[in-house]
Design goal:
Oligomer: single chain
Shape: globular
Mean pLDDT: 94
Number of helices: 3
Structural class: alpha/beta
CATH topology of the largest domain: 2,3-Dihydroxybiphenyl 1,2-Dioxygenase, domain 1
Largest sheet: 4 strands, mixed
Length: 134
């Protein structure tokens, strides 16, 4: 099963530059002047859509992600250091800090918002340290 997350963005070029700096890649075959297909993994993609294109898929108003939280997208990474590198890179390329790092022993996470205000949460989970919480 593939997963496609659709997010409205104000500027596709700005989004490509921001997420490209984080090391994410794009599927140009599914991108055009109104949509940018971004690969998260082999089975998970984010469709970054202009507001006009996004609005064509829903009768509801588009949330202003800078004022409300419409989704929290958590990305599992391989280590605490990878979480810090990813979040620090996002902050260095125009992202904004959302909260302080959270360390629960078996799980470590950070949160940042992209230039459109969507919240991303890179995290590392130590499966061995989870004990009975599997």
């Amino acid at each position: 099963m593939n997963v496609y997350i659709n997010l409205p963005v104000a500027d596709l070029d700005r989004s490509r530059a921001f997420f490209g700096a984080l090391g994410l890649d794009f599927v140009d075959a599914f991108s055009d002047a109104t949509a940018l297909a971004m690969r998260i993994s082999e089975t998970c993609f984010v469709m970054l859509l202009t507001h006009e294109k996004f609005g064509a898929f829903t009768p509801r108003p588009i949330a202003d992600a800078r004022r409300t939280t419409e989704v929290l997208t958590a990305l599992q990474l391989d280590s605490r250091a990878a979480v810090d590198r990813f979040a620090d890179c996002a902050l260095a390329h125009g992202g904004g800090a959302v909260r302080d790092a959270q360390d629960h022993g078996f799980m470590y996470s950070r949160a940042f918002c992209d230039p459109d205000g969507h919240i991303w949460e890179p995290f590392f989970m130590d499966q061995a340290g989870m004990g009975g919480a599997q």
